[in-house]
């Protein structure tokens, strides 16, 4: 049996940096270094684990993003993915989830897939809806937000921990899966992996290659518009006291003055 | 007046608080039409009417409980199509499932989507949604420029207001798409109730982190929470260590909370934790490290050992309450 897995990953500004917005109110990608979204590492990990048990399985990582986004692909390749696709086009700048998902759906269809795996959300936009949107566009089952995932006999199954219940879910392939950060630690790239990644193929595509209209994507083609982005005033640090044996009682006094008790 | 579709989050007919908050926001945009699905759907009508629902559309089918997300998208889509004119907006609670339902509806109706709004106002060009970005370090205002404004809203984003309306119950006819039965829910284990308030809805949240140092020590956190009638939260470090369930995790990959009071004990204040609690009204920190970044956010902080400070606080709360 062969299995074609496509992993969708995002190149995001490092959360430990001072993230912000550019003049056109898109995410500033200049001021802060970018990296493979940590939540997508879990998707790469699960893809590699599933692939490990299947003869002739191929794992392709895909990203839509600027030139630097290749770094995210390299990281995934060094973890063990087989090949990569990078969609890069000036016209994609400022795409919203509808634009990005349109492009990803086209790439995934062109590549051919049995399983698409994504992270639970990006660490910059944090919407967490792209996998569901992709499933809707591709017309295949969505098996999302899994903390455990298994592929066997053409069926993907897993556990979805929801707000009010934990569910066991399953669907026939092809399907779109997303995995949470509870799905299992992602591996670190080995030295051998990093060296091997340098020789793995990265296919670069633009909108024309994908036969997509530039008007459907990017800032101008987005179906949402950001009118303003204002930095919140930093919370002003309040009173900090050292516990000298009365800390608990002092806290209670504070809660009382604030009418919490 | 234009109608606004509100997706009802309920458990067996008991409407969850965020839906009532949505009705408050919906009334700013038009006449709320609530959509309640599955077992107990009709029982939601009373409370929805009290809070402004002009009509309540209900649908019952085994598909809603047996298959993931898509049956609910089909129903919400049918609700939108049943209106005389397209709704002024579709509002959905920002649960993980709510966001997925909203997103698929947006694709189907050729609409833009905004998730995790913390406020919505009417605007000349349609609803304006406020969001918190980059771990709540920015506040943005956005609009949907194409199709129906589909917006998911976080809990605690608006007050619950009584606003009596007819709440006329109507049966919604839903024809399921072939995709509806794509993902089967094989089994469901309901989360056990702790008797404490829902984490995302609670007015007070008491959270513990790595500093709690052991599952059994979470009793200290729980005791304080119970004295205040609060929900219990945990950092990812505490969850990863197996000391507390993941359902209680606060932060980027856990729950996002915005209570009146958040008490962080033995939590350093990493950016991913802050992302889930930074918008709390009042923040209190107990940490033995004076350099812990959590103190930068705290309105009141105690530098000390949580194992002595918290029990003393709990004791004092009990004393003052009696
Ligand atoms: C993609 C991603 C997503 C993440 N999502 C989340 C998330 O959703 N939620 C989350 O919380 N984290 C998340 N994290 C992890 C986050 O980066 C931190 O590692 C985590 O929040 C640390 O938890 P902590 O503060 O409990 O532990 P630590 O950072 O180890 O801090 C423990 C604190 O306890 C104090 N302490 C120790 N003993 C005592 C004592 N006896 N009394 C008082 N104080 C004491 C210490 O001084 C220290 O400040 C995420 C990380 C990544 C990369």
From TrEMBL, chain A:
Signal sequence range: none
InterPro entries: ETF_a/b_N, ETF_b, ETF_beta_N, Rossmann-like_a/b/a_fold
Transmembrane segments: none
Cofactor(s), names only, from the UniProt record: FAD
Molecular function terms from GO: electron transfer activity
SUPFAM superfamilies: Adenine nucleotide alpha hydrolases-like
UniProt cross-references to Pfam families, sorted A to Z: ETF
Keyword Transport: yes
Keyword annotations: Electron transport, Transport
GO cellular component, one term: cytosol
Residues of the Electron transfer flavoprotein alpha/beta-subunit N-terminal domain: 24-214
Assembly mode: Heterodimer of an alpha and a beta subunit.
Family statement drawn from the similarity comment of this UniProt entry: Belongs to the ETF beta-subunit/FixA family.
Function according to Swiss-Prot or TrEMBL: The electron transfer flavoprotein serves as a specific electron acceptor for other dehydrogenases. It transfers the electrons to the main respiratory chain via ETF-ubiquinone oxidoreductase (ETF dehydrogenase).
Name of the protein described by the UniProt record: Electron transfer flavoprotein subunit beta
TrEMBL record, chain B:
InterPro entries from the UniProt entry: DHS-like_NAD/FAD-binding_dom, ETF_a/b_N, ETF_a/FixB, ETF_alpha_N, ETF_asu_C, ETF_asu_C_CS, Rossmann-like_a/b/a_fold
Cofactor binding mode and count: Binds 1 FAD per dimer.
GO biological process entries: fatty acid beta-oxidation using acyl-CoA dehydrogenase
MF term (GO), any: electron transfer activity
Alphabetized UniProt keyword annotations: Electron transport, FAD, Flavoprotein, Transport
Superkingdom as given in the UniProt entry: Bacteria
Residues the entry annotates as binding FAD: 210, 235-236, 249-253, 266-273, 287
Membrane-spanning ranges: none
A Pfam family hit: ETF
Keyword Ligase part of the UniProt annotation: no
Family: Belongs to the ETF alpha-subunit/FixB family.
Subunit structure: Heterodimer of an alpha and a beta subunit.
Record's protein name: Electron transfer flavoprotein alpha subunit
Native organism taxonomy: Bacteria, Bacillati, Actinomycetota, Actinomycetes, Kitasatosporales
